């Protein structure tokens, strides 16, 4: 293999802007070259492999948690929502320093660890509001929040309405008590 075949200059000019388009163009070059010029097809195939390798490296250097770390942290969070959580615990689950973990978490989940925990707690509160008749104060504590007012404040901030209004609006027939049977006249 010649050195210039794998150089960046041999890649299409739009490869950095549109890797998918560049890959499609290179695949077409390989297809056409197979019939007309096998050497040109081979060169296009080498450029395609180089493009795909470089785009994979560029995505990998972006940062973030490895898939196993992401799954492990997410599972740990979901199991531990009922209690206070510290970032040190989460970093330990991923075997990273606290600062590296915080940056990698935000790259992987699109939000800070705190924001993600709040979202999970509010989702859990919504599930409990729909599936139980527990008072909001008990639901707040079950979700790891300090109080009903804490739940209400976060709920309003994130969802735009109070928990009780949301619960009334979204409650299904499965949660409401059965209607009493009509009394027969005595």
Question: What's the quick description here?
Answer:
With 186 residues, this protein is mostly helical.
Instruction: Tell me, briefly, the overall form.
Output: elongated
The helix fraction, in percent, is: 55-70%
CATH topology tier name of the largest domain: Arc Repressor Mutant, subunit A
CATH architecture assignment of the largest domain: Orthogonal Bundle
- The radius of gyration over CA amounts to 28 Å
Number of strands: 0
Largest sheet: none
Q: What is the domain total for the residues?
A: 3
CATH superfamily annotation of the largest domain:
Homeodomain-like
Helix and strand composition category: mainly alpha
Give the distance, in angstroms, between the N- and C-terminal Cα atoms: 100 Å
Strand composition percent: under 5%
Query: What is the CATH level 1 assignment of the largest domain?
Result: Mainly Alpha
Provide a count of the helices.
Answer: 9
Mean pLDDT, to the nearest integer, reads: 80
Q: What's the order of the H and E elements?
A: HHHHHHHHH
Spans where pLDDT lies below 50 across 5 or more residues: 1-16, 56-61, 174-182
Please supply descriptive tags for the structure shown above.
186 residues; mainly alpha; Arc Repressor Mutant, subunit A; 65% helix; 0% strand; elongated
């Amino acid at each position: 293999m010649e050195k210039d075949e794998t150089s960046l200059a041999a890649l299409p000019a739009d490869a950095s802007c549109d890797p998918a388009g560049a890959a499609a163009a290179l695949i077409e070059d390989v297809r056409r070259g197979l019939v007309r010029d096998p050497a040109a097809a081979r060169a296009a195939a080498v450029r395609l492999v180089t493009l795909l390798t470089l785009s994979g490296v560029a995505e990998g250097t972006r940062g973030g948690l490895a898939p196993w770390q992401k799954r492990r942290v997410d599972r740990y969070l979901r199991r531990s929502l009922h209690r206070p959580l510290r970032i040190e615990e989460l970093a330990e689950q991923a075997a990273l320093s606290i600062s590296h973990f915080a940056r990698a978490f935000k790259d992987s989940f699109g939000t800070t660890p705190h924001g993600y925990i709040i979202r999970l707690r509010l989702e859990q509160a919504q599930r409990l509001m729909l599936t139980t008749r527990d008072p909001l104060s008990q639901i707040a504590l079950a979700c790891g929040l300090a109080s009903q007012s804490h739940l209400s404040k976060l709920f309003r901030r994130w969802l735009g309405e109070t928990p009780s209004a949301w619960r009334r609006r979204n409650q299904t027939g499965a949660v409401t008590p059965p209607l009493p049977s009509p009394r027969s006249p005595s």
